[in-house]
Amino acid sequence: MVRLASPIGSLSAIVFVATACTAPALGQGLDIRTLFNLPGPGTGSAAAPAVAGGTQEWSGESGASNHPLMTAQAIRAAAANFRNCLAGLWPQAQRRGVTREIFEANVAGFTPDLRIMDLLDAQPEFTKSFWDYLDILVNDDRIQNGRAILAQHRATFDAVEKAYGVDRHFIAAIWGVESNYGTQIGERSVIRSTATLACIGRRQDYFREEFLSALEILARGDVKADHLKGSWAGAFGPTQFMPTSFKRYAVDFDGDGRRDVVDSVPDVVASTANNLKKDGWVSGQTWGYEVVVPKGFNFLLADRSRVMTVHEWERLGIRRAGGKAFPRAEDRAYLLVPSGAQGPGFLMLQNFRVIMKYNPAEAYALAIGHLADRLRGGEPFVQAWPRQERVLTRAERYELQQHLAARGYDVGEPDGRLGGKTRSALRHFQSSVGEVPDGFASAAVLERLRSR
Fold first, then answer.
1. Which of 96, 235, 351, 416: disulfide with 28, CB 3.0–4.6 Å?
2. Are strands 229-230 and 332-336 parallel, antiparallel or unpaired?
């Protein structure tokens, strides 16, 4: 990596034992089957075949989302049209100040990376249990290495915290979860990944903008082409900026004239802080609190749209776990019970919503908040997770959503991801059949839906 002249430091100067982590970190798009030892969709226990360079080929199977653009036939048809699709994007790139020379130099000879099609429908934030996700991302090694990062770059964190008012522990937590403190950034070409997704698969409109924005980064000279590498989704750098997020939030904090979120620690930390601040970060406030939900509680109130003060939640019997007091009774929060009545509850503040803007998955945001607390010296969660419960497969989650939709409940577009809408629909279904409406998608509730 490039060694910068800045006295605050560069990523090339980082020396610590991050590689000792018990599991690789999850970025916004690293190959999560390596992380969770998962096979390709529809392939049973067999892994996709390896090709030269240690990468894997596309499984040839349709995606798990059941989206029409993710069928094997649609993927093959789009791949056959890949060169024409790229040629059609040149006029838009030109209007953004990208020269023909830069465009051709970075797309010439490209073939689509179809392995990405297997990964697009398999993000673990949406397919793993909360407890499995937290076990992997908030562990002793990641805590130890995060504290080493905070100590090594204390001067940078001091300056950034003063400039942006964002708690350093959250920035370090994002750094740790996204790339294992820079050791798992990803090796795929951002240009090739975003070009593939701009022309193939179910999110082409979204990734077309990412592809064009990535070309703009090269045109501006902020990041060198051979350093613009990252996840299969096009996220790059230690805190995994998508190209469009880079355009909105990246800053030149070390003053070298480039917004380098790959090799400059000051730019990485400040850009991440700027992202959180512009998304609504509340200085001096944490992400939320683990809470004990009393027996007989009305779980229909556990909805992100139901925001009340901490004092109002206390009047309903909600208590902070571990017997601790809430620091501010007037803070406004919503109640999240990700594993239903059997597991812990959490009162979520504004900053939790801000973290979800960085990655729109509750499991991700909870991991960031909890790791930040642990880096600060906080304790593990007090209450146990219902580890005895079998986690539904992606196909079963999709089936559950279909059953709910068929009964008139709003789950959005069925996709196998159990977000807020699905949990709300599930709560109302549970209430209608006399069950505790905790919104937990158990195997038992799926059987109940099948039998009606």
1. 235
2. unpaired
Question: What are the residue ranges spanned by the domains of the chain?
Answer: 288-375, 394-451
**322 to 287, 309, 326, 344, 368: CA distances (angstroms):** 17, 20, 11, 12, 21
pLDDT of residue 66: 80
Predicted confidence band of residue 420 (pLDDT cuts 50, 70, 90): confident
Backbone angles phi, psi at 118, to 5 degrees: -70, -30
What span, in angstroms and rounded, lies between the C-alpha atoms of 89 and 398? 34
- How far apart are the C-alpha atoms of 332 and 313, rounded to whole Å? 9
Partners of residue 188 on adjacent β-strands: 230
| Residue labelled with tokens 């230690």 | 238
Band of residue 413 on the pLDDT scale cut at 50, 70, 90: confident
Place of tokens 């089957």: 33
For helices 394-406 and 420-432, what crossing angle results, to 10°?
60
3-class secondary-structure state, position 271: helix
* 173/364 Cα distance (integer angstroms): 11
Question: What end-to-end distance do the CA atoms of the chain give, in Å?
Answer: 60
Q: 189 φ, ψ to 5°?
A: -65, 125
Q: Considering the chain, what percentage of its residues have pLDDT values greater than 70?
A: 87
Tokens representing 9 are: 């430091």
H helix or E strand, kind and range, residue 150: helix 140-152
Contact (CB, 8 A) for 375 and 169: yes
Torsion of CA 104, 105, 106, 109, to 10 degrees: 70
What is the structure's pLDDT at 55?
54
Stretch 233-250: mean pLDDT: 97
User: Under DSSP, is residue 50 helix (H, G, I), strand (E, B) or coil?
Assistant: strand
Residue in this structure with the two tokens 């649609």, named with its chain if needed: 74
H or E element at residue 137 = helix 130-137
Q: Give the model's confidence band at 383: pLDDT under 50 very low, under 70 low, under 90 confident, else very high.
A: very high
Residue 74 gets which letter from DSSP? H
pLDDT in tens, 354-377: 999 999 889 999 999 999 999 999
Query: If DSSP codes are grouped into helix, strand and coil, which group holds residue 337?
Result: coil
